[in-house]
Amino acid sequence: MNKKYRNLLTALLVIALFAVYGCSSNNNNAGSSGSASAGASAGASTGTAASAEPAAADLATELRFPLAQQVPTLDPHLALNTNVYVTLNIFEGLFAFDANFKPVPMLAESYDLSEDGKTYTFHLRHGVKFHNGKEMKAEDVVASLNRWKSVTGRAQASLGDSEFKTKDEYTVELALGEPRNDILAQLSHVLNNAAIMPKEVVEAAGPDGVKEYIGTGPFKFVEWKQDQYVHVAKFDDYQPVSAEPSGLSGKKEAFLKDVYFDIVTDSATRFSSFLAGTYDYVDVSLDNLPQVQGLSDVKLNKNLGSDINLVFNKKSPLFSNVKYREAVAAVLDADEILLGTVNSPDLYRLNPSYMYPENKTWYSEAGKENYNQKNADKAKQLLQEAGYNGQEVTLLTTKELGGSFYNATIVVQKELESIGVKTKLDINDFATLLKKRADANAWDIYVGLFTMPSTPSQLLYLNPTYGFADDAKLAELTKQLTAASTDEEIKTANDALQQYEWEYLAAVKIGDTYSQSATRDKLTGLTTLAGYPNLANTKLAK
Amino acid sequence: MAFYIARRLLATVPVLFVLSVIVFLIIYLIPGDPAAVMLGDGASPETIEALREQLGLNLPLLPQYARWVGHAFQGNLGDSFFMRQPVSEALAEHLGPTFSLAVLAEIVAVAVAVPLGIRAASRQGSLSDKALTGFSLFGITVPGFVLSMFTVLLFSVQLKWLPVSGYKPLSDGLWTHLKYLILPAVSLGIVQAALLARVTRASMLEAMNESFVKTALAKGVSERGIVYKHVLRNALLPILTVVGGSFGTLIAGAAVIESIFNIPGMRQMLVNSVQRRDYAVIQGVVLFVAFAYVLVNLVVDLLYAAVDPRIRLK
User: Fold this and answer.
1) Which segments cross the bilayer (chain B) (predicted)?
2) Does the predicted model carry a pTM greater than 0.80?
3) How far is B196 from chain A (nearest CA, A)?
4) What ipTM was predicted for this assembly?
5) CB A197 within 8 A of CB A214
6) Chain A interface includes B41 (CB < 8 A)
7) Which member of A25, A269, A275 has the closest CB to residue B260?
8) What contacts B299, CB < 8 A, 6 or more positions away?
9) pLDDT digits (tens, 9 = 90+) for A375-422
10) Residue A20 and residue B302: Cβ atoms within 8 Å?
11) At a CB cut-off of 8 Å and minimum separation 6, what does B154 contact?
12) In this complex, is the C-beta atom of B26 within 8 Å of any C-beta atom belonging to chain A?
């Protein structure tokens, strides 16, 4: 009897083992090509001396690049945040930002703007190939951009009912109802990028995105192992432009044959992997800073990252009244909030404009007298005038995304309480936060980090879906701004809008933050724009 | 016995059913919208609405549940919104790493704990006994993630013997497979070992006080023979129970270790899926884990009979 049991159990266990290992090895075969070479780079020594221009034979062909967050989609029209690290290396648009956020032609050869400022004509480059070998033509551009417009809120706000139309094989036309000066910036933006994909791919896309990832960029998509890595490889038929590389624009040449974007969500693990030599690039937190500074072959980079804004719910019982918004703006101490968020005076700067100073066209200091007031008496006065009697203010936040939203919010909470405002912190995971933020009854104040505003018309909190801004004058000024054509007109309209924004207070600008990253000296030519890495022109010495 | 096994397996059906209702209710009651998570801040409201429609999120609760149960009875656990593959396929893919890790961690635990426990029991009050108490205290109090960070610093960053994180399947070679799992398995195993060693010691001591030990001594059986042949055999039942329980825990828990070592296992998949509200995957994983628990307990019960012939299963 005893023996019988044993035999039976052994058999059961063996079957179970085979079943499990059978499954795991089957489906990992697909991925093994992508991971086979990991060991080599993991063991690579870190002592290689860097030379300015390594010869081709001395270059490594594979780079592993760590991503801090999950990649929910690789559809460039839908891609935000981490997704963009990958997509901007696969896809290109008609225009791309240079280092000063200026739109520069990429897939477009040139463009014409009609006298009345309403009709854009884009002339496409000839001979540009998609990763599937097909040549890019006007029909692809039209299909891509019309789909881009239909799925992204930002593009809809800019383009209204206008559609892109084919004029001939290499010419695309966009006729607008009214003149707009932000079209090229919209076409260049890295978030919800107006990428050009083959017509067939665009037409086969469902609501959850395109099913194939085919672009024109220097790297082509190879494999996406959900939650593990995205593998891209050099596209041999890439046709670069001749302009000097700058930001995301200009000449691109892939020196790396394979790039793996590894998803490593734990920051300690990412950093240890960098120290162990698996990665040659890593984001650096303040805790890890001393360790990086102790390494001789590593360079520390400071990148302009996100700007922090306090957004009001303009439909909430209190903050529908501008007096309350003024009271909050009066008490805020930007230094305190920024320091509390990034923990180091080196990692932020005060900035009264809703745009970055680097962004020459749209930077404006109008209305800056209302920025960083630190005036508790004025705030209390305003509260009294508004008739405040202890209503609770809900601050919506999340501890996810590295904790910076939460850190900023608790400093704001403390400042509000210092003038006698009763507050409640509503902490959620990010998925819940998204849901609640869209609900006008769920919150009063939301302090968020925003990525790279490139034109005022792209500021999310100025449009009704984000904080429910609903103001005729704001809409009119935004319209005038986008319709301005000469530099002088733009400046006047821009100043007027930003001045008014500091009066209407859809949101209160807090300041700009920097992020830090470390690169090993053997990794050269990596450029970033607002933290997003352009891996074309990047070389890795062996 | 076949009847016994069948009955035990059948008994899981109501458990799984109740569990599915609870899990379904909980995840639908917490706010959060997979469509919004997937498409992000920049998507137009119409696009999000279209995706909700496609994913079937606009149906009322009951029809959604009915649809899900209907499919589940046909062996179809639904499709993952994010991974764009059937849940059963995703489960199979992610089970491999989790199972490998659990087996290895259990081996570490047993290999460390059982000899330690035996030694401590046979030399009660000695230095090795006190050392075991110290080790247990260490294992129980030091969280696995702290231990794992120290081991990574030492073995991966300083000595560069083992990779920091990641996972390679068995098909890449046994050593490659093990290399990636050693540190997480040790971090997990030590914690389990602490508990197991204490149970082994206590159980051994209890068996040592039985009268058959005296008989054996009187018969002139060597001390070694008594400890391993008589006492251990009799002390094995509680040890088996704890091993079974800890194996269940290893399959179900420890998402932190998978996250730190970036192992694409089932627990990491579960955490990711909760964050992005991938409903079908959450349900699939929870049901699977519940089923695995029942199965492990069944195997433990069967092992009882194998180890102790006095136990008869009907």
Assistant:
1) 9-30, 99-120, 132-157, 177-197, 235-261, 281-307
2) yes
3) 22
4) 0.83
5) yes
6) yes
7) A269
8) A9, A12, A13, B244
9) 999 999 999 999 999 999 999 999 987 789 999 999 999 999 999 999
10) no
11) none
12) no
